[in-house]
Amino acid sequence: MIEKYDFKKEYKNLYSSRQKPILIDVPPLNYIMIDGIGKPTGENYQNAMQILYALTYTIKMSKKGDKHIKGYYEYVIPPLEGLWYLDNGKLDFNVSKDKWLWTSMIAQPDFVNEYIFNWALDECKNKKPNLDFSKARFETFAEGLCVQSMHIGSYDDELRTIAKIEKYMDENKLTNVTSNIRKHHEIYLSDPRRTSPEKLRTILRFPVEKTSF
To answer: pLDDT tens-digit profile of 70-119?
Structure first.
């Protein structure tokens, strides 16, 4: 039996379970993305989840229909990811979550391109007319140099891990360049519907530059 392509195995450093900060260089990856505003428990975010997964599963399950995608191979659907920021700059955890801006996204295999995305878009519009698929887009995201660490625990307790990341940056002459351009990035390895808050596994990632003196 051929093993399914798994982003978590192919890009082990990007999905590292280490609870210590590490420096990584993130290569360009293809994503389906949706932008929005508001807390993750809000209607906008929940609708975005439905849209993202509808498109992602339509592409994955194309093998069972009439659509034959060139270069298709079996794969595991990658984890949900999110970019978080504010209009005037980097994310501030003291600001109400109702004002948080976000980009919710799921990575796609390299055989997915704009043409395949548009095909999936048309399929989903016909099957789920109640959802606004106009908000979805396909994009190659080049993140570059970053520091990340695994956070285990509640989303509301992320500052504990962020403090470790900031300490690592200081010790290694790295500058946090998080803004509304290069954003605070989270990768969700646990399903909050099935995992207790203290056991949630979330990768926290920050874009950085090497400090010059």
So the answer is: 999 999 999 999 999 998 878 888 999 999 999 999 999 999 999 999 99
Q: Which residues of 70-104 are buried (b: 16+ CB within 10 A; e: fewer)?
A: eebeebebbbbbbbbbbeeebbeeeeebeebbbbb
Element (H, E) at 146: strand 144-152
State the amino acid at position 47 in one-letter form.
Answer: N
User: Tens digit of pLDDT for each residue in 181-194?
Assistant: 899 999 999 998 89
**Cα–chain center distance at 33:** 9
Show the domains of the chain with their CATH numbers.
Answer: 5-210 (3.20.80.10)
Give the tokens for residue 78: 């990658």
* Angle subtended at Cα 127 by Cα 121 and Cα 130, rounded to the nearest 5 degrees: 90
Which two tokens mark 183?
Answer: 């954003």
Q: For residue 131, what are the CA distances in angstroms to 52, 121, 125? A: 11, 11, 8
Q: What is the pLDDT of residue 180?
A: 85
